[in-house]
User: Which sequence fits this backbone?
């Protein structure tokens, strides 16, 4: 029975409101971070593929068309095209650039829950509870808007 007494005394010292507000802040930042990472991965591949396509099209066009009949210039153009197809380092850097663009664009899109989550996590007392309450209101609004279609142009399907 001594164990239950120790547990109950420890639970009395725990501030449930503080844990709840910090938990809501961490959850919001986790969800925003998950979305941002997912969008970053998609944009990384898209950006790198677009850059590869543009670059490859340029070198292919350069190797196909000639202004003179020089075999040496043709060989140089063909070698540059082949080198472009075999290079992986440009794609590596372009994927990094695309990831950063996608990640930051999603953070900008989710600036409200990100700001409220940071506020709930880093502030104390009533301010933290206000930020957590704002997150709950925002989450409820987004749920109603996206699940039921209320508040969107055209409204729910009737």
Assistant:
């Amino acid at each position: 029975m001594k164990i239950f007494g120790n547990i109950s005394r420890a639970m009395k010292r725990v501030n449930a409101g503080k844990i709840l507000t910090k938990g809501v802040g961490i959850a919001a930042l986790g969800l925003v971070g998950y979305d941002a990472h997912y969008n970053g991965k998609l944009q990384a591949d898209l950006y790198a593929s677009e850059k590869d396509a543009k670059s490859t099209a340029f070198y292919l066009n350069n190797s196909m068309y000639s202004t003179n009949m020089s075999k040496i210039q043709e060989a140089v153009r063909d070698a540059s095209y082949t080198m472009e197809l075999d290079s992986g380092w440009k794609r590596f850097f372009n994927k990094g650039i695309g990831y950063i663009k996608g990640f930051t664009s999603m953070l900008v899109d989710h600036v409200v829950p990100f700001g409220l989550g940071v506020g709930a996590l880093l502030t104390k007392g009533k301010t933290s509870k206000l930020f957590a309450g704002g997150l709950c209101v925002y989450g409820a609004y987004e749920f109603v808007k996206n699940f039921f279609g209320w508040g969107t142009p055209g409204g729910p399907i009737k």
